[in-house]
Amino acid sequence: MPSQNAQRLFLARPQFAWNLVHRVWHPKSPSLLDLVCPLTREYRAASGADARAFEAGWAFGRFEPKSRREEMSKLLALGDAEASEVYQGFEQLYGIEQRDPTAYRPFVEFCLGLPSEMFLRDGEQRWLAKRIAQDILPEEQRANRLNGRWDADWRLRIGRRRKEYLDDLERLSSHPRFANMLDTAKLRAALEDFPEETPTDPQRVLPLEVALPRALLTARFINFVEGRNDP
After folding, report:
1. For position 1, what pLDDT does the model report?
2. Please, what's the b/e burial string for 45-80 (b: 16 or more CB within 10 A of its CB; e: otherwise)?
3. Do 61 and 22 meet the contact criterion of CB atoms below 8 Å apart?
4. CA 32-34-36 angle, 5° bins
5. Does residue 49 contact residue 42 with C-beta atoms inside 8 Å?
6. Sign of CA pseudo-dihedral 228, 169, 48, 71
7. What DSSP letter does each residue of 172-191 carry, written as one string?
8. Rounded Cα gap, residues 158 and 156, in angstroms
9. Which are the contacts of 172, defined by CB distance < 8 A and separation ≥ 6?
């Protein structure tokens, strides 16, 4: 049985306790930040990126708010993280507008103002959405309890350009600006061990689906802003 001090620690600081148990139980498992971030650990530390994330309240790997009020507070404070910058860079580079309904403030304020019972009632999730969809959507679709993915074809799209991306990473690994900034070794290893089928293990999914596109877009956007033609 855990001591009383240990029990108090778990109750008073559950995030600290979870991190401690996770490190003991999975000592060789990379953190979520290491999986999704294209920057090297050394660059994150030297640039202050890790410190800024910690000060902002980011809890990488686990997000378990104690209440809806705490969750809303954190969501509003943290916003979309770097998504707005990624969207802006994508639009400027490729001229494709990112039409995100959650960026429409009146819609967001309406959802935030709804009581919790509209989202979860008597054990039923998405209660309001299902009532609105009644007699509009096919019943099989309306009552479906499965979760969908908006980026389900990522393996196919990245796989088609795998050789091109490997060449890009090779150039970036010897670039004076990006060699110490981007973790090209991690991304190259993920591409070389490319899955034959879409994996579900986050340790295989996140470096390819999340970190790789961020690395390439970051390098291209920096070159775009600074007016260079480097790869």
Report:
1. 47
2. eeeeebeebeeeeebbbeeeeeeeeeeeeeeeeeee
3. yes
4. 70
5. no
6. positive
7. HHT-TTTTTTB-HHHHHHHH
8. 6
9. 178, 179, 182, 184, 215, 219, 231
For residues 224 and 60, what is the distance between their CA atoms, to the nearest angstrom?
30
Provide, rounded to the nearest whole percent, the portion of the chain with pLDDT above 90: 39
Residue 192 has pLDDT above 90, yes or no: yes
Query: Can you read off the two tokens belonging to residue 95?
Result: 């001229």
Is residue 182 within 8 A of residue 219, CB to CB? The reply is yes
pLDDT of residue 165: 96
Mean local confidence (pLDDT), 136-147? 89
- pLDDT average, residue stretch 138-155: 86
Backbone phi, then psi, for 124, in 5-degree steps?
A: -100, 125
Mean pLDDT of 32-43: 91
H/E element holding 25?
Answer: helix 14-25
